[in-house]
Design brief:
370 residues, Rossmann fold, 15 strands, globular, binds nicotinamide-adenine-dinucleotide
Length: 370
Amino acid sequence: MIIGVPKEIKNNENRVALTPAGASALVKNGHQVYVQSTAGLGSGFADDEYKKAGANLLNSIEEVYAKADMIIKVKEPIESEYKLIKENQLLFTYFHFASYEPLTKAMIACKAVCLAYETVEKKDRSLPLLIPMSEVAGRMSIQEGAKYLEKPMGGRGILLGGVPGVKPANVLILGGGIVGTQAAKMAAGMGANVTILDINISRLRELDDILPLNVDTVFSNEYNIRQLVADSDLIVGAVLIPGAKAPHLVTRDMLKIMKPGTVLVDVAVDQGGCIETCKPTTHENPTYEIDGIIHYCVANMPGAVPYTSTLALTNATLPYAIQLANKGWKKACQENDELALGLNVVNGKVVYKGVSDAFNLPYTPLEQVL
Ligand SMILES: NC(=O)c1ccc[n+]([C@@H]2O[C@H](COP(=O)([O-])OP(=O)(O)OC[C@H]3O[C@@H](n4cnc5c(N)ncnc54)[C@H](O)[C@@H]3O)[C@@H](O)[C@H]2O)c1
């Protein structure tokens, strides 16, 4: 199969969908890989490394789309790419269709085969191509939080781990899933006093077993949250209710009982945020202040660490990309239910219920296209 890797053109996107190691693996499986020149640069991979891995370089995005049977990307195609996509071309990337109707309509119109990273799903209902980005954002939330706690950044001026003779900071983490667990690990490792909340008692039991002794687990309810926020220095929002907006666990009135210079990092901002006063920010302008409380609400946190994010993402996507390349999308999806659930739009038909429901579009059961 001919595989194309275009350079990402969405604003501030430095990740790339295939590393030189990934290109080498696909070439060894007998495929031809075409990478757009400088596609890997933002993540630290030079053109030469792709060449050494056996890939071919192309100068323009038009050439990549024109040549490839399968396009591997990171972000959904943006408008200028719509016209480059060919009928029957396989696109393997994040799409998040349900959040953007024009993209959905464009992909229906061009009759491509759209396999979305975010809906590839394992039997245990976990989402293997979303987990790596949650891991990055969870770990990063503490790094960012620690930075904004510094006085010149607007924070309280407290060192997360304290020093001998001085108490460390109190870190409160709302939600004990992937993001919350990674955040707790980092904060605990830096020596903070950590409290992690969840509504799932089995999850709290697991966390109690695996996390170090400077992490307390507490059941999540309004009473407990109100008590804890007053004495927290850094609060991380990491809740998720699948398919729904995040609940506002930290309400506006709670800001008044927090210590001035407390930092809030709402990682759940992409689902509306679990802190009422959260609104999406960017890496250029990541924070704002309300009532003396610093808010960090960057919606694409992994974008700031493209080297790590690219490697983490491609570790997870490559095994699926190899199956798609070796067998073709239809056979690969017939033989692997995880991949089949990634199919969202196939040759003009919407085969993912959530997407058809979102825009009232006709739904075609997946079996009819496989
Ligand atoms: N901003 C970014 O760059 C970025 C990057 C990755 C992920 N995210 C977002 O981070 C959020 C968390 O993702 P995740 O992968 O950790 O999800 P997850 O499903 O692994 O974990 C969510 C946890 O929240 C818990 N929860 C639900 N309601 C709760 C409540 N009322 N109180 C306390 N806990 C509650 C659940 O029981 C679950 O354990 C999602 O919204 C995700 O989209 C954002």
